[in-house]
């Protein structure tokens, strides 16, 4: 077999196809989706010579195993993990050559949550609204990988990678999330706003691609009642009635009706994608956070 | 796999949407949906902590910060939100505004993907916002069989004979106020005195695609099978969502809609 495709031998806990997502359709109820750890996805693409918008695989905790039907260049990044080709150790975070029919095994994460596997030419499933991303909230894009599935590959890039290896930040021991206030900060008590930015929270095991759920001291509302649905953004810190903040990630709903106390800076969200359940989360108020000088 | 969001989403009750990957759980509007018409004001008031900086408070428009790239513009009501939405689309089409997302909702419009939110926040309150012009494409007609399982309950709530639900509902003209919950799910507000209905006390775990439902002040059509808590009055064969179509959604914000009775 020499067709440009890759077979899924072990799909892993949750492996999805991801690219830069499908922004621009939120008004139709379409989430942005896309890789959660964007820098890691961009880096593995660069390592195999792909353009930044090529689709990669995003694994969750325990990797995946793949058998290409043609010789391919692959790079594995994101959460550090062992990588083997036909049982022999191969490099993580660097381009590796996988012969046709060989078994590439992306092992369980040593630390972090999401691994990224770029294949030269990119995963070439049919795009939906301009993106190949799997959207777990709305079901758009390809379904999560299953054992035995076969994914088409794009034409291998002729350009060589500009980098052989690259430093990648390790997963956070403590997740620091800088948060700007609003739009509904005034729905919370002054105590709640101080609590959010001074007390420690932990990443909940109920976190997923839609949101990073946290456990910790609940945030008390100053305003009761209900908020009519309003538009949501990436990084929005929504506070449901139980008072535990949820940070919206790539597959977040486009509208919601629980008040958003603040918004996490986008550049802090890659680390959020790699924070395992139980990781300590510290929200740092910035941008005029109430009660904080500077 | 659920994340909170609220408002009147067409899924289940407060707690959860069982099993579905993420159809955000959503609570009901209160009885008769009164809350969606009048939420608490968003500006700081006496006794409240210092509010997030509100960039501009020119009543009835509040321009609220939402991260580093977005503004949430809050208006007095849904009609004002619709007018601002139309004006934003017009300005974007004319090249006067660069923004990735313009997301209308119950009484807000979100602008996301702005290069310089502060600059726009300063300009917005001085805009002249004309009432939205009627859309050129006219009124979209959606054929409906008024045979939903909650038809009798809705008739009882409205205190009318069952057959009158179809007559009353199909006499109204609707407007897509906003989309959300699922791709292609529009929240439609009706003209006139269309009575509101509460959501079902117990949401259904499965609502078929094409189901026409009511909740609070809204009518919606389920684009695909999902859990749902709206009162189902009918069904349609119209394709609400087809990602190969442009636009993929049949119902887009601002569109005018009529429901046309079909023999059940």
Write the layout of secondary structure elements.
The complex is a heterodimer of chains A (294) and B (264).
Chain A (H helix, E strand, L loop, with lengths): L4 E6 L5 E3 L19 H10 L8 E5 L3 E5 L3 E7 L4 E3 L2 E3 L5 E3 L5 E3 L7 E6 L30 E3 L21 E8 L8 H9 L2 E3 L7 E5 L14 E2 L4 E3 L7 E3 L6 E2 L3 E5 L4 H5 L6 E6 L9
Parallel strand pairs in A: 12-20
Antiparallel strand pairs in A: 1-4, 1-11, 2-3, 3-10, 4-9, 5-8, 5-10, 6-7, 6-9, 12-19, 13-14, 13-20, 14-17, 15-18, 16-17, 16-19
Chain B lengths: L33 H4 L18 E3 L2 E5 L4 E5 L3 H16 L7 E4 L3 E5 L4 H7 L15 E7 L5 H8 L3 H10 L2 E6 L6 E5 L13 E4 L3 E5 L2 E4 L4 E3 L2 E5 L20 E7 L2
Parallel strand pairs in B: 6-14
Antiparallel strand pairs in B: 1-2, 2-3, 3-5, 4-5, 7-8, 7-14, 8-11, 9-12, 10-11, 10-13
Helix pairs in contact in B: 4-5
Number of domains of chain A: 2
Total strand count of chain B, please? 14
Query: Structural class, judged by helices and strands of chain B?
Result: alpha+beta
- In round numbers, the mean pLDDT of chain B is 81
Which CATH class of the largest domain in chain B applies here? Mainly Beta
Q: Spell the H/E element sequence of chain A.
A: EEHEEEEEEEEEEHEEEEEEEHE
Q: How many whole angstroms does the radius of gyration of chain A measure?
A: 20 Å
Distinct helical segment count of chain B: 5
Brief overview:
Chain A: GO terms for molecular function: hydrolase activity. Chain A: InterPro entries: CT_A_B (IPR003778), Cyclophilin-like_dom_sf (IPR029000), PxpC (IPR052708). The complex is a heterodimer of chains A (294) and B (264). By secondary structure, chain A is mainly beta.
Keywords:
heterodimer, A: 294 residues, mainly beta, Cyclophilin, seven-stranded mixed beta barrel, six-stranded antiparallel sheet, 20 strands, elongated, B: 264 residues, alpha+beta, Gyrase A, domain 2, 2 domains, seven-stranded mixed sheet, five-stranded antiparallel sheet, 14 strands, 17% helix
């Amino acid at each position: 077999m020499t067709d440009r495709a890759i077979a899924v031998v072990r799909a892993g806990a949750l492996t999805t196809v991801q690219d830069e997502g499908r922004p621009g359709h939120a008004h139709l109820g379409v989430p942005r989706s896309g890789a959660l750890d964007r820098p890691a996805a961009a880096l593995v693409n660069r390592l195999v010579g792909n353009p930044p918008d090529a689709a990669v695989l995003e694994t969750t905790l325990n990797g995946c195993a793949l058998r290409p039907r043609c010789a391919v260049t692959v790079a594995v990044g994101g959460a550090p993990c062992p990588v083997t080709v036909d049982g022999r150790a191969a490099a993580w975070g660097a381009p590796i050559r996988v012969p046709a029919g060989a078994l590439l095994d992306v092992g369980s994460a040593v630390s972090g949550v999401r691994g990224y596997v770029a294949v030269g030419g990119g995963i070439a499933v049919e795009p939906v609204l301009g993106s190949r991303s799997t959207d777990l909230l709305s079901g758009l894009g390809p379904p999560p990988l299953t054992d035995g599935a076969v994914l088409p590959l794009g034409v291998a890039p002729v350009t060589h990678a500009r980098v052989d290896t690259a430093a990648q930040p390790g997963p956070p021991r403590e997740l620091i999330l800088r948060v700007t206030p609003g739009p509904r900060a005034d729905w919370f008590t002054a105590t709640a706003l101080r609590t959010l930015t001074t007390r420690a929270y932990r990443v909940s095991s109920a976190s997923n691609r839609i949101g990073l759920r946290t456990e910790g001291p609940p945030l008390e509302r100053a305003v009761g009642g209900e908020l009519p649905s309003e538009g949501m953004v990436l990084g929005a810190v929504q506070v449901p009635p139980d008072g535990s903040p949820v940070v919206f990630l790539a597959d977040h709903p486009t509208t919601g009706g629980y008040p958003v106390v603040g918004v996490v800076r986008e550049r802090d969200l890659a680390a959020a994608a790699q924070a395992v359940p139980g990781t300590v989360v510290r929200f740092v108020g910035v941008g005029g956070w109430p009660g904080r000088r500077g | 796999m659920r994340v909170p969001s609220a408002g009147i989403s067409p899924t289940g009750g407060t707690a959860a949407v069982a099993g579905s990957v993420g159809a955000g759980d959503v609570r009901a509007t209160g009885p008769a949906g009164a809350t969606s018409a009048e939420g608490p004001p968003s500006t700081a008031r006496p006794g409240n902590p210092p509010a997030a900086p509100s960039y501009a408070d020119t009543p009835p428009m509040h321009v609220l910060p939402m991260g580093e790239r977005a503004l949430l513009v809050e208006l007095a009501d849904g009609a004002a939100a619709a007018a601002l939405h139309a004006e934003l689309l017009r300005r974007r089409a004319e090249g006067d505004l660069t923004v990735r997302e313009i997301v209308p909702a119950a009484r807000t419009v979100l602008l996301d993907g702005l290069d310089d939110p502060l600059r726009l926040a300063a300009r917005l309150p001085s805009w002249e916002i004309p009432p939205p012009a009627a859309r050129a494409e006219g009124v979209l007609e959606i054929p409906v069989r008024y045979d939903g399982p909650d038809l009798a309950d809705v008739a009882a709530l409205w205190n009318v004979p069952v057959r009158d639900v179809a007559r009353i509902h199909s006499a109204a003209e609707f407007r897509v106020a906003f989309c959300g919950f699922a791709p292609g799910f529009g929240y439609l507000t009706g003209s006139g005195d269309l009575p509101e209905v509460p959501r079902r006390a117990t949401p259904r775990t499965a609502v078929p695609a094409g189901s026409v439902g009511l909740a609070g002040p809204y009518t919606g059509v389920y684009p695909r099978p999902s859990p749902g808590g709206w009162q189902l009055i009918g069904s349609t064969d119209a394709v609400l969502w087809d990602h190969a179509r442009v636009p993929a959604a049949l119902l887009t914000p601002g569109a005018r809609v009529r429901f046309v009775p079909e023999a059940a």
